[in-house]
Amino acid sequence: MTEAGGPDGPIGAPHARYAPGTPCWVSLMAHGLTATQEFYGELFGWEFRPGPEQLGPYVRAALDGLEVAGIGQLPPDRHLPVAWTPYFATDDVDATAETVRLCGGTIGVGPLDAPDAGRLAIGSDPSGAVFGLWQAAGHVGTSLTGVPGTAVWNELTTYETAGVRKFYETVLGYEETEPSADLDYVTLYVGGHPVAGIHGVGASLPRDRGPHWTTYFEVADADAALALVERLGGQVLEPAHDSPHGRVAAVADPEGARFSLIQEPR
């Protein structure tokens, strides 16, 4: 994991537009929309407003009036995994979706319009990790980053980085990547800024999950946030520990959606 700044403006400031390849939005599809809003509202201080309903009931979470994430409701007859999904910016979602297919990935949803907001697609890489694509119109994506309650990093956990790294370079146009000397880890860059990571863990990858993206949300106090997660009915998967990038923990919400928390180094 690497410290990531925003593509436009200083950290903590509203964003104008995201460069192609930059994670620009994160969205959760859950079964109980009301209960899920209550959990994240208490945990991150989010308020909610209605969003496009092309995929069913959907709300956008906001901090200080600036949108930071989305939560949608899964149809009751569809038993899909409850998970956070990062969306990557593109100037042409149809062309990018076609490149996904040509490179061995799949497109499961779209491309389709979210009226006045933009155009989206949801797909998976050749290993099965799910991600989204977003072509902005009226809605650029996450409007605020770098403060508690916002997504600050997205990381792919997969078997090995070599093949999947080439997939994301081709699909999203990363011209600069930085392998780690110590482990099978690659940092993806856009315009000189680190924007996401790919971590190959080999046989250590959980069989019940497979390759997957994880979103890191910033918190002011990781230990206090863990206590709140448990009080709200969530689960601590990995206790807080110190790392070079801050104090990090892995958790799940009451429906099982996994995500990580990070507190900046003091």
Automatic annotation (TrEMBL):
Ranges of residues in domain VOC: 22-136, 150-264
- Give the protein's recorded name: VOC domain-containing protein
